[in-house]
C-alpha cells in the first residue's frame, strides 16, 4: 500500500480556544487544495479543558484528520508519539496556533528532493516578538553553539519536517527518554528540539534550515529568567547524556 505524501502532527494541550477559533479549519482548507495525499494527526497530551471534545467535533466533519489521546508527558512525548504513528513519507510537526502557517511546508519540499533528511523552520526576524524575547533567543543561540555545537540560527521553531526514515531513527531513539516522564501542567521541554537535532547530527543525517513566516502570539510571554534557566538545563542534560554515551 502506497504511503501518504505528507503527515502533519499537531500536539495539543489545553487548546480549546485555538480549536474553537478555527485554526484547524485553516489547515484543512489549505491541505484539501493540494494534489498530494495527506493526513493530520492531532495528539492530545491529556488536556484538562474541552480540547478533545472540540477536536472530535471537528474531525467528524473533516476527512483525513484523526485524534490520538496520550498520557500527559509534555510536548516532547506528545510529538514523538504522533510522529511515530504517522503514515506519511514526509512528517511535519507544527504548533496548533499556526504561528507558522501550514503553507510554509511548501518551502521544505525542494530541500527533501535535493537529498536532505530533515528540514527545520527558522523564524527570520521574529516578527512581533518583544525585545526581551529576541534577547533571550540570541543568548540561547550563543549557549547552544558553545555547549552542543549546533550550527543553526533557530532550533526552537515548532515547525520541522522529516523524511520517514529519518523520523524513525531520531524519534525511535528519543522515545525511551520521554515515554515514562511524569509531568504536571504545561511542559514544552526546552531541551527537546536541541536533543532531536543533536541526535540527528550524531547519525549524520542531512539537515537544512529554511526561513519561514512566523508571527508572535500576544499572551505567550514567558518569564525570561525561568525560561533561560530551563533552556540551559536542557542543553546541559543533552551534553551529559552525550558524554555518558547514551546516544551511541
From TrEMBL:
GO biological process: protein N-linked glycosylation
Domain of life per record: Bacteria
InterPro entries in UniProt: Glyco_trans_2-like, Nucleotide-diphossugar_trans
Pfam families, per database record: Glycos_transf_2
Glycosyltransferase 2-like domain boundaries: 7-167
PANTHER family, alphabetized: DOLICHYL-PHOSPHATE BETA-GLUCOSYLTRANSFERASE (PTHR10859:SF91), GLYCOSYL TRANSFERASE (PTHR10859)
Protein name: Glycosyltransferase 2-like domain-containing protein
Species, as recorded: Candidatus Woesebacteria bacterium RIFCSPLOWO2_01_FULL_44_14
Amino acid at each position: 500500500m502506497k504511503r501518504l505524501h505528507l503527515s502533519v502532527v499537531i500536539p495539543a494541550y489545553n487548546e480549546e480556544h485555538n480549536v474553537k477559533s478555527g485554526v484547524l479549519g485553516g489547515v484543512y482548507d489549505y491541505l484539501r487544495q493540494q494534489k498530494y495525499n495527506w493526513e493530520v494527526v492531532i495528539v492530545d497530551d491529556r488536556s484538562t479543558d474541552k480540547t478533545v471534545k472540540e477536536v472530535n467535533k471537528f474531525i467528524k466533519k473533516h476527512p483525513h484528520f484523526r485524534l490520538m489521546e496520550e498520557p500527559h508527558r509534555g510536548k516532547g512525548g506528545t510529538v514523538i508519539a504522533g510522529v511515530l504513528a504517522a503514515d506519511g513519507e514526509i512528517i511535519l510537526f507544527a504548533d496548533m496556533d499556526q504561528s507558522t502557517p501550514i503553507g510554509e511546508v511548501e518551502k521544505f519540499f525542494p530541500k527533501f528532493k535535493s537529498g536532505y533528511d530533515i528540514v527545520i523552520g527558522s523564524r527570520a526576524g521574529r516578527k512581533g516578538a518583544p525585545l526581551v524575547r529576541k534577547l533571550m533567543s540570541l543568548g540561547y543561540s550563543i549557549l547552544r553553539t558553545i555547549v552542543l555545537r549546533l550550527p543553526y540560527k533557530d532550533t526552537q521553531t515548532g515547525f520541522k519536517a522529516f523524511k520517514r526514515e529519518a523520523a524513525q531513527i531520531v524519534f525511535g531513539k528519543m522515545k525511551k527518554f520521554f515515554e515514562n516522564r511524569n509531568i504536571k501542567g504545561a511542559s514544552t521541554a526546552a531541551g527537546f528540539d536541541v536533543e532531536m537535532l543533536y541526535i540527528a547530527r550524531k547519525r549524520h543525517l542531512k539537515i537544512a534550515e529554511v526561513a519561514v513566516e512566523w508571527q508572535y502570539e500576544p499572551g505567550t510571554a514567558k518569564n525570561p529568567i525561568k525560561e533561560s534557566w530551563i533552556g540551559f538545563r536542557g542543553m546541559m542534560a543533552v551534553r551529559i547524556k552525550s558524554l555518558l554515551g547514551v546516544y551511541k
